[in-house]
Amino acid sequence: xxxxxxxxxxxxxxxxxxxxxxxxxxxxxxxxxxxxxxxxxxxxxxxxxxxxxxxxxxxxxxxxxxxxxxxxxxxxxxxxxxxxxxxxxxxxxxxxxxxxxxxxxxxxxxxxxxxxxxxxxxxxxxxxxxxxxxxxxxxxxxxxxxxxxxxxxxxxxxxxxxxxxxxxxxxxxxxxxxxxxxxxxxxxxxxxxxxxxxxxxxxxxxxxxxxxxxxxxxxxxxxxxxxxxxxxxxxxxxxxxxxxxxxxxxxxxxxxxxxxxxxxxxxxxxxxxxxxxxxxxxxxxxxxxxxxxxxxxxxxxxxxxxxxxxxxxxxxxxxxxxxxxxxxxxxxxxxxxxxxxxxxxxxxxxxxxx
Length: 354
Fold this sequence. Notes:
Elements: E1 7-12, H1 16-27, E2 31-37, H2 48-52, H3 65-70, E3 75-78, H4 85-93, E4 97-100, H5 112-124, E5 127-130, H6 133-145, E6 151-162, H7 169-172, H8 186-193, H9 195-208, E7 214-224, E8 228-229, E9 234-235, E10 240-251, E11 254-264, E12 269-270, E13 279-287, E14 290-294, H10 307-310, H11 312-324, H12 326-331, E15 335-337
Parallel strand pairs: 1-2, 1-3, 3-4, 4-5, 5-15, 6-11
Antiparallel strand pairs: 6-13, 7-10, 7-12, 8-9, 10-11, 13-14
Helix pairs in contact: 1-11, 4-5, 6-9, 6-11
């Protein structure tokens, strides 16, 4: 049965993912954009459509949080690069639901901040939900794949990518890229920088009905043998240009869930890791064993003359899982919710009729 409800939305930031969120909200007849937060003074006062690179929308971006909360939207689409616990507490305790792409699945990586978020949601009667393409959506697919098994021994999700042209030092330096290969702080840095994948392990464990004895991060590194120019920054020879991460959920000494990430940069990597996939490979080892490959291609009408324009596909895939979850999140019980707490997420409002 079609969902004809309408949801009032405030967009939070207009960075790369935020721009795709604005465009998707504006195009969806079930969603009404009523406000937009812009932390930058350069963006405050401008039309949100202009900031997103689309036609004017008649909504002006502002850095006045009180004014945005006073709009009493159904939901905030929260797209900063990183979580700001103080911001989320303020939004949730005002009774406004949040769907986020900013490194949040269960919130365990936030430490005491998770309790503050949960408490604010309870006080406000609101729900906090985080996703993205990975972690998030792809891990949900692994859970769905296990639905035809009468026994599951292990769930594995492997992600691999050559990220040479992904110029995002703000997100890559925190996981270890660019550090000296012998830096003793690398393992702890990588564990912290990829901690949201540990949250995804916990979510899959919840879906399986198991409690882990340990959720652990193991990492390996590869170095570049020559200076590597990445556009906005350079990794010097001997610096980390390849990161392999394995997040494991362990019960009684047995790994039951494993999420692996293999990212490499440049053609001077040592050891020279080969990337023989583009996207994700999911395996549910059990009875039966289920395998699934997830990749993406541009549609025939997609136009990109620069790498930056092509990267819009990745921004769309990151933005849409939370946006499509809005009806389920608005209807959910107060608190922190994951895919295990929500009904099937439906892509309502994305068929174009014009």
